[in-house]
Amino acid sequence: MNEVRLSGLAVLFIGVALLIFTFICAYQFLMGVLEIAASEDLMKLFGEALSPLISYAVRTLYLGIMGWIGSILTRRGVQILTATEKAEKPSEKNRAMEEQGV
Description:
Order of helices and strands: HH
Largest sheet: none
Structural class: mainly alpha
Oligomer: single chain
Shape: rod-shaped
C-alpha cells in the first residue's frame, strides 16, 4: 500500500475517533456523568451565580475545540485519500495504453 494513502487513512481514522470521543463526552456532560471540578477560589471570586455559567462555558469551549480538531483531521484524511486516488487512476490508464501498444 502506498505510504501517502496509508498516512491519509491514519489521519482520517484519528479524526473520526476524535469526533466520536467528543460526542461521547458531550453526551456524558449533558447527562451529568462527567463534571468539571471547580476550585473554591473560583466560586468565591465570581460568586455562586456565575460559577455554573463559567463551568458550562468551559465545557462548551472544550467540546467545540475537540470537535473542530476532529473535523479538520477527518477532512484532511479524506483530501489525502481522494488525492492519491486521482494520482493513481491516470497511471493505471497509462499502463493499460502501454500494454495495448498505443
